[in-house]
Amino acid sequence: MCKKQNRFPLWTILLFILCISCTSHGQGLPRTWTDDMVLKASYGGGMLDYSAKLEIKKTGSFLETRREGKPKRMELHFTQAQLDSLLTVLRENKFDQIETRPTMIYDKGTTSYLLTWDKGSAGISDGATMAVEEKWRNQFYAIRAFIYSMSGFN
């Protein structure tokens, strides 16, 4: 008997739900990367048999991918300067203010980002059920490009 493979891993669905409900609680993003700060990113769904999960923090960063059923994990290490540069890009592109709207696009992959720290959180999801508002697309793409350049996550 063949098991039907779940197209959306549970962690992707949970991250999406968190992204919808996250705000920075009026605090704004911190100016420097703190010890408790974590950026989680996920990509999944759509017609491709590909998913990715990224976690960036001061210690223990990693990128996990799954392509055609084959998992791969890569440990990542970032300096304080690299983490602060990431945070600068998030601040400059107003990560915590980017607006999204509900949508329904079948077979489109979803990219989600969730940043948490001791005083708040902020998240964005763009894909099958949520879309970044047109006026924020350039900022979203700039953030996505920077994260890709430092980690290989797409």
Can you offer a commentary on this structure?
- With 154 residues, the protein is an alpha+beta fold.
- A hairpin with a 2-residue loop joins strand 6 (109-117) and strand 7.
- It has a single domain (15-20, 32-149), classed as 2-Layer Sandwich (Mago nashi protein).
- The protein has helices at 10-21, 80-92, 137-151; strands spanning 38-45, 50-56, 61-67, 70-76, 100-102, 109-117, 120-126, 130-132.
- The model is unreliable at 1-8 and 18-26 (pLDDT under 50).
- It has a 6-stranded antiparallel β-sheet with strand order 4-3-2-1-6-7, covered by helices on one side. The chain has a two-stranded antiparallel sheet with strand order 5-8.
- The radius of gyration is 15 Å and the shape is globular.
- The termini are far apart.
SSE blueprint and pairings:
Elements: H1 10-21, E1 38-45, E2 50-56, E3 61-67, E4 70-76, H2 80-92, E5 100-102, E6 109-117, E7 120-126, E8 130-132, H3 137-151
Antiparallel strand pairs: 1-2, 1-6, 2-3, 3-4, 5-8, 6-7
Helix pairs in contact: 2-3
